[in-house]
Amino acid sequence: MLPKAWIVSIGNEVVSGQIVNTNGAWLAKRLIVLGFDVRRIIAVPDLEEEVVEVFRDAISKSVDVVISTGGLGPTYDDRTSEFLAKAIGKKLIVNDEALKLIEEKYTVKGLPLTEHRVKMALMPEGAKPIPNPVGTAPAILVEVNKTVIIALPGVPKEMKAIYEEYVEEFLKQRAPKVYRFEKWIKVTGIPESSLAPIIDKVVKKYRTVYVKSHPRGSELASPVIHLYIVASSLNNLDEAREIVEKTYRELVEEFLKLGGRVEELEINAVKGE
Amino acid sequence: MLPKAWIVSIGNEVVSGQIVNTNGAWLAKRLIVLGFDVRRIIAVPDLEEEVVEVFRDAISKSVDVVISTGGLGPTYDDRTSEFLAKAIGKKLIVNDEALKLIEEKYTVKGLPLTEHRVKMALMPEGAKPIPNPVGTAPAILVEVNKTVIIALPGVPKEMKAIYEEYVEEFLKQRAPKVYRFEKWIKVTGIPESSLAPIIDKVVKKYRTVYVKSHPRGSELASPVIHLYIVASSLNNLDEAREIVEKTYRELVEEFLKLGGRVEELEINAVKGE
């Protein structure tokens, strides 16, 4: 049995349909590639009764990993940390490590620690803060019984940066031993904005593949994109390799039609250990 | 207290992040305009334990309206009807009314009722089928205690058509007495594909507004679009009117920049009764 994961998107703008839940889809893709069984993506409003209930629900069902997004900022309606503390029966306290992370961000810019800034250091007792490489609010990690809960910010850029720099590595240790096949390629001559719809189309076909583009040149003058293609399998490396290669061939075919040039850079085959 | 609603998106492709949950966002918008309090948008895989649990959860919490999407088609992995029957403790039987609806669709085209086609008429005992104006699988309506559950197909075109032709009218009777302000306008000279991003941008600002475009001319040669702008308020008509007018003004400003012409067609003010 694969470890189970839930993704919880907290915020009125998501549950009211004002924005589409792209954070949820992005996280699901990443968790699946690591070998987690994503069982729910749940959007809830910034309401105590709903958020507390969803966290408690996950704990009582022994979901292995819960990742929430949203509600970590400095304003009055950012209350995820408070709700999380309630859900797990812990006090909400100023986390010294979190406060230090926040202080560093502001003192560099000569800004004082106001009440709203300190608020972002409030965490459930026993929580572990996770640095935010591109924003100010640290993420929160708590463990209750068998369940790890990681609360990330809702701003996609911050959510993704924290996930990629810190969370993914942590989760790999909790993930099953999967076989992972990775390929890096270089695409020249096509702007990233033209690659995006092609990648979206191809990626939709395969449940266990994830493709990420990293722009290296300038978007219009001389576009150079490094593409990372990864897939995983519980069974063997060939299965993962096959999905990556299929994805790769379909992408290349489309890129060539647009006059792009494609070069293979690197291949990694990671055995489940 | 507003009546509560949950939206349940059933399908591996949603919970795995292969597709972003646009159905959920669309339904949330529509339910909020009617005056429902959308408390959750939940994506789950096509797995019995998950789907049954979510339906049961909603019933035990006396959620007023649950709308699910997905899993109603003819293939083996379309099992929403079966799971719904399990969740509410009813037998799964061939619904005669549903069978007639399906038969009509196929006999018009001279096609026989195969096993896979009959499958789409299997519904929980006591369920009411809802016709599908653009596809074949009828939707399903059941009531359990205080909760109405409506299972719609996952194909966006079918889901929207059934909602607009049948479900919305039904839900209005369960909705609170809201004030609704509606405005129809005509936009000439801008293709719908250019209107779309503008509408998306403006609509995001207001929780209770919904804007729908109806193309009346040809997309490129002579684009004519009728736009429907609607907002609701629990308190008074002015509140709803103000949101519609603000939305209207912001839209018009952008449309004029693109060289479009705008004409007001019709205004409806609906008092909560």
Topology:
The structure is a homodimer of 273-residue chains.
Chain A: E1 4-10, H1 12-15, H2 22-34, E2 37-44, H3 48-60, E3 65-69, H4 80-88, E4 92-94, H5 96-108, H6 115-119, E5 122-124, E6 128-130, E7 139-144, E8 147-152, H7 156-174, E9 179-188, H8 192-203, E10 209-215, E11 224-233, H9 237-257, E12 261-270
Parallel strand pairs in A: 1-2, 1-3, 3-8
Antiparallel strand pairs in A: 4-5, 6-7, 7-8, 9-11, 9-12, 10-11
Helix pairs in contact in A: 2-7, 3-4, 8-9
Structural features, described:
The structure is a homodimer of 273-residue chains. Chain A is α/β, with parallel strands linked by helices and 273 residues long. Chain A has 2 domains: 4-174, MoaB/Mog-like domain (Molybdenum Cofactor Biosythetic Enzyme, Chain A, 3-Layer(aba) Sandwich); 179-270, Alpha-Beta Plaits (2-Layer Sandwich), CATH 3.30.70.600. Chain A has 9 helices and 12 strands. In chain A, the strands form 3 sheets. In chain A, strands 2-1-3-8-7-6 form a 6-stranded mixed β-sheet, sandwiched between helices. The first copy, chain A, has a 4-stranded antiparallel β-sheet with strand order 10-11-9-12, with helices on both faces. The first copy, chain A, is globular and about 55 Å long. The model of chain A has no long low-confidence stretch (mean pLDDT 91). The interface between A and B is medium-sized, with 33 and 32 residues. Strand 2 (37-44) of chain A pairs antiparallel with strand 2 of chain B.
